[in-house]
Fold this sequence. Notes:
By secondary structure, the protein is an alpha/beta fold.
Amino acid sequence: TIESDAVVQEETSIVHGHGEVILFVDDETAISEVSKNTLETYNYQVLIANNGIEAIAIYVQNKLTIKAVIIDLMMPTLDGVTTIRVLQKITPDVKIIAMSGSNDNEEKIKAIECGVK
């Protein structure tokens, strides 16, 4: 007899936006474009930054309209954790979601210590 593993499917609900502005920060253009298209499909407006310095500049110009920041932790020029700290100095309660393709837990731990999801 052949045994098969039971597949458990989690019910996920995708949160649709209401035109909220999201700042998406990643040094990889392909990831930024796919993410922008996906977020726009779910009714979010997306501003793109290619590094931490750009992210800070865009955030300062749009801080009253940006509702959340999604940021890569591993970037050249200015890393994600340093960028997060600067954004939090500008707006202490800024909502930030950090992401990383790296297996390096050190950066993830630093982001969690900053209160990032």
